[in-house]
Amino acid sequence: MNIYSNAFFHRVDQLRFLTGILEDGFKAHYCKEEVYLGKGNVSYIGIPMVCFCDIPLAFISRNNYGKCGIAMKRSWGKQRHLEPVLYYPNDLGCQSTKMIIKAAYAFSTNRKVADAYRILGYSKPVKKINPIAGRCSDNYIEREWRKVYANPAPLKWLTEAEYNTYRGPSGSPKKSVGTPLVFSADDVEFILIDKANETNLRDFIMNHLQDIGGKLNPISLDDKCTLLSKVIVYESMKNNI
Predict the structure, then answer these.
(1) Using CA atoms, how far apart are residues 31 and 166, in angstroms rounded to an integer?
(2) Tell me, what DSSP letter sits at residue 6?
(3) pTM attached to this predicted model
């Protein structure tokens, strides 16, 4: 069994998010990232990004992701310059952790010197500092890859207060930022959907999808057939791996 997937996988928990990606591409959003500072201390930074993972499908249900998603070919990810996340220990004695803390200090004191803290966009503590009830606290199993949007141009990174203003009321949809990552039907490795929404997804692709992957080009019948052929049902995959 492969120790990683042959595709970059973006998982979502609702059909509407999946259909949005199929039509508009992968939109970037600010994500609130934890930074370990030691002894129970943590800081937060709002970083604009698009996230993927390369978890093997044999572990499809052993993570915090939803039952829907879209897997992109690794060649597509390479062209978009996706990068793997550095997982640093929650341990002040480790050199990588010291580097992250130094970068966090640089961000808090002078956000104009971007190179001094850009590593924060591609790093994550091995364990969540403030675990979320009902969710796995082990970040390391996520095998995350990212496309991070540079600071200060075209998008600045946010302090915790700035992020909270951007985020708005709890439950409201996140506002997209930057330029989406676009793709064609041939860039898609497969599309994952839960059994309850399989018919709705197939109907959307066949009868309602007008453009593909943010390219703003009318989708052809061949492209629709290509996408339909790549639909995989979550429950069937889970029960047979």
Answers:
(1) 10
(2) S
(3) 0.90
